[in-house]
Amino acid sequence: MLSSNYNNNIQIVQGDQVVAVLNEMNHSVRIVPMDGRPHLPADVRQFRGDSIGHWEGETLVVDTTNYHPRAFQSISSDKLHIIERFTRQDASTLRYEITVDDPDTYTRPWSLMIPLQHSSKPVYEYACHEGNYSMMGILAGAVADEAKKAASK
Q: Is residue 143 part of a domain?
């Protein structure tokens, strides 16, 4: 699915008892158990939190707690609680809703909705690669530095 943000595509894969959510940015994957288990104990903290999922009709609901402090937007507390909802609106649109609740960071919970558009293009690993055109500028700067050092000898 494509979002409107740079390098922020996602791919969702559903298995028997789990859903995997792959984010293109930083190439991270969340494995979301769908078997009704409870959250991990509150003292078990993970950078991406502890996600558990369930279905509410046609909507996938992912409930995430147990984040490390500062894991979300570099400002969140250990009380951060995020609920995401993924609902197919039509053959090419997935409605993505998120509600962020963190009483130590925000005065009240807040929500947003982003319509994600289907893409037939693959999601690539987020890394430097042959198509990274900025690499030419980086290397040109390094070559110029080396030439300057050689000229000053």
A: no
Q: Which long-range contacts (CB under 8 A, 24 or more apart) does 68-76 make?
A: 71/47, 72/100, 72/102, 75/105, 76/102, 76/105
Question: Partners of 64 in the beta sheet?
Answer: 51, 82
Q: Which pTM value belongs to this model? A: 0.78
| Cα–Cα distance measured from residue 70 to residue 47, given in angstroms and rounded to the nearest whole number | 9
Which long-range contacts link 109-114 to residues 24+ away (Cβ below 8 Å)?
114/3, 114/4
| pLDDT tens per residue across span 81-99 | 999 999 999 999 999 999 9
> Is residue 52 situated within a structural domain?
yes
